[in-house]
C-alpha cells in the first residue's frame, strides 16, 4: 500500500493555493487520478517521485518511509525505483530510441521486448526530433519501463495516441505491468480514457 | 621574423581555455540553479571583466600579485611562485579576464534546458554526475563549443591585462598582441602587419568554424 498524506503550496493563476492530499494506492494495481486542470494531479505524481518536496507530510510505500517532513526523511528519486512518464515526454534530444532504453537497462532482450510492445522496432535508430508526437509518447512510456520500476507514474500518457494504438498499447502494457508486478498511478483528464486499464480511481477536486 | 610571440599567444590561449573549461562547466551549472544573493554577487564579480577596462583589472592584479603584497608574499614563500612578469601570471590573469566568456554561454544553455530532462534521468536511478555527463552536457554541446572558441579568441587577443601583469619580456611574456604594439612603437609596420594578419586569420577561421558547426542550431551561432 502506498500511503500519501501531504500538504504543498502550489502556484496557480489565482496566486498560491494550498494543496492537501490524503490517499492510498493499492500495490500491484493501476489507479487512475482524475480531476480538473490545476487541481494538483501532476504535483502529486512529482511528490511521490521525490521531484517536488511538500512543506509537510508523509509518504510510505509498503511500510517503507519515503518522506517524513517531521523526521526530515526524504528518499531521493534515484532510490525510489520508480518510472515516470512526463506530460511533455522529457525525451533526451541527444539519444536515439534504443539509447534511451539502454540508458535504463543493459538487458538487450528486454529492450527488444519493450520496442515490440511500443511498436517502435523500426524507429530504434531515430532521435526524438525525428519521431511523431505519438511515437515520442510511446518512447516516454518505454523509457520509464526500462528500469523495471516498482511504481510507474504516468502523466497523461495516452493523450497523443489514436484509439487503435491506444487500445493495443494499453492491453500490452497492462500485461507487462502484471508480469513485473508493478504498481501504476496514471493521471488523466478523461476518466473514461483508461477504461479497462485502471482498476481503481481517485478523483481530485 | 620572430615566431615566438605567436607560439606564446597560442600556448597561453590553449592552457587558459583548458583550465577555464574545467572550472567553467561546473561553475556555470551551479550558477544556473536557483538564485541566491551570494550567488548573484559572485556572478557580478565573474562578469566584471566584461565591462571593466582591462588596464584597471591589470593594475589591481599587478598590485595583488606583487611580491610586496600579502598574496604575492605568501605565493613566493609557500610555493616559490612569482606571478608578476611571468608566464604563470599571464595564465592566472587570463583565467580571471576570460572567465565570463566561458561561463555566460554555458550558464545560459543550462538555464534553457527543461528541468524535466534531469528529472527524467533521476527517476531512472541516475546520479547528478551521470545526468550531467550523459544528459545535460551532450545537449548543450553547441554552447560549450561557442564558449571554448570565444574564450580562446579573447585570450589570444588580450592586451591590457597581459601588458600590466607580464610586461614585455621576449620569450616569457611578450605575446603577439604586445609584439604588434611594440612593432608599431618602433615604426616597424611590416612586423606589426605580419602579427596582425596572423591573429586576424586565426580568429576568423575559428569564428567561421563555429558558425559552420552550429549552423543547425536555431539560435545565433554565437549565443
From TrEMBL, chain A:
Under Pfam families, the record lists: ABC_tran (PF00005)
The record ties this protein, via InterPro entries, to: AAA+_ATPase, ABC_SmlMolc_Importer, ABC_transporter-like_ATP-bd, ABC_transporter-like_CS, P-loop_NTPase
For this protein, what is any one GO molecular function term?
ATP hydrolysis activity
Keywords attached to this Swiss-Prot or TrEMBL record, sorted alphabetically, are: ATP-binding, Nucleotide-binding, Transport
All residue ranges annotated as the ABC transporter domain in the record: 1-204
Q: Which PANTHER family match?
A: SPERMIDINE/PUTRESCINE IMPORT ATP-BINDING PROTEIN POTA, SPERMIDINE_PUTRESCINE IMPORT ATP-BINDING PROTEIN POTA
* Name of the featured protein: ABC transporter
Source organism (scientific name): Olivibacter domesticus
TrEMBL record, chain B:
Domain ABC transmembrane type-1: residue ranges: 6-210
In which compartments does the protein localize? Cell membrane
Q: Which InterPro entries match?
A: MetI-like (IPR000515), MetI-like_sf (IPR035906), ModB_ABC (IPR011867)
Write down the superkingdom of origin: Bacteria
Q: Which SUPFAM superfamilies match?
A: MetI-like
- Cross-referenced Gene3D superfamilies: MetI-like (1.10.3720.10)
Pfam families tied to this protein: BPD_transp_1
GO CC aspect terms: plasma membrane
Transmembrane stretches, by residue range?
A: 12-31, 40-63, 83-103, 194-213
Predominant localisation class: membrane
Q: Which GO terms describe its molecular function?
A: molybdate ion transmembrane transporter activity
Q: Which PROSITE patterns match?
A: ABC_TM1
Membrane-topology annotation of the record: Multi-pass membrane protein
Q: Does the keyword Transmembrane apply?
A: yes
- Print the keywords alphabetically: Cell membrane, Membrane, Molybdenum, Transmembrane, Transmembrane helix, Transport
PANTHER family in the cross-refs? MOLYBDENUM TRANSPORT SYSTEM PERMEASE, MOLYBDENUM TRANSPORT SYSTEM PERMEASE PROTEIN MODB
Function as written in the Swiss-Prot or TrEMBL entry:
Part of the binding-protein-dependent transport system for molybdenum; probably responsible for the translocation of the substrate across the membrane.
Family (UniProt) = Belongs to the binding-protein-dependent transport system permease family. CysTW subfamily.
Indicate what this protein is called per its UniProt record.
Molybdenum transport system permease
Protein's organism: Olivibacter domesticus
